[in-house]
Amino acid sequence: MSNENLNPLRKKIENLVSNYQQKNDFTGWFEDIYTDALGNPDQVPWAKMQPHPCLENWIKTVNLTKKKALVIGCGLGDDSEILAQNNANVTAFDIAPSSIEWCKKRFNNSSVNYLVADLLNLDNSWKNSFDLIFESRTIQALPITIRKEVIDAIATLLKAKGTLLIVTRLRDTEGNIDGPPWPVSEEELSQLSEYGYQEINRIPYIDPNNPSIKQALIEYQRK
Ligand SMILES: C[S@@+](CC[C@H](N)C(=O)[O-])C[C@H]1O[C@@H](n2cnc3c(N)ncnc32)[C@H](O)[C@@H]1O
Q1: Which atom of ligand 1 is the closest one to the Cα of 120?
Q2: The CATH number of the domain where 77 resides is what?
Q3: How far apart are CA 96 and CA 106, in angstroms?
Q4: In CA terms, which of 14, 30, 80, 195 is 20 to 30 Å from 37?
């Protein structure tokens, strides 16, 4: 696809993703985005500098006191912080060291344990150990070719009876598509049932800047 008419940041991302993918590296470009931004969130296309509205609403319905929560691909930390403000014990990680540095600088009195880590290479001791897992827009930021590994990696982290929240774009077809992002399909999500996950709620989300894009917060419980 020609990217001549895209805005400069979008064009930059497409070029970065393509260059890294040629080296079989699906994640190196995230660090480039954070470092090149030089502290300006306008240069990080997903940075909203506030918690996701679906998470804010969900939090009002639960008691998170002392719950052991994990935020995957935490970006600039707003979702992690709101979980911590609601008394969860939060660990938040991202593969991009500069995003973690940025979180620590923004929230320097935070109780969140911010870490650099790769979802696809986590310590075995993390398996089956969290009461709540929150992932927003990280699955969709990784190509469909590695989706099975990505969903497997997330699925193993939750305790029995724990809650998994996924915020994602959704696609209606099962075939491959151009990205990023690469919205998630129903068949891909159904992989979670192999790990005992049951969907218990799905709240559609309409992004005022992108109203035509199908998105949702999906809540799962593990048996
Ligand atoms: C589209 S951004 C979303 C950030 C944040 N969750 C949000 O919704 O604002 C995807 C994030 O996932 C991180 N990421 C991508 N692949 C990862 C991996 N394998 N392990 C950990 N973090 C990853 C990126 O660095 C980036 O911060």
Answers
A1: 19
A2: 3.40.50.150
A3: 16
A4: 80
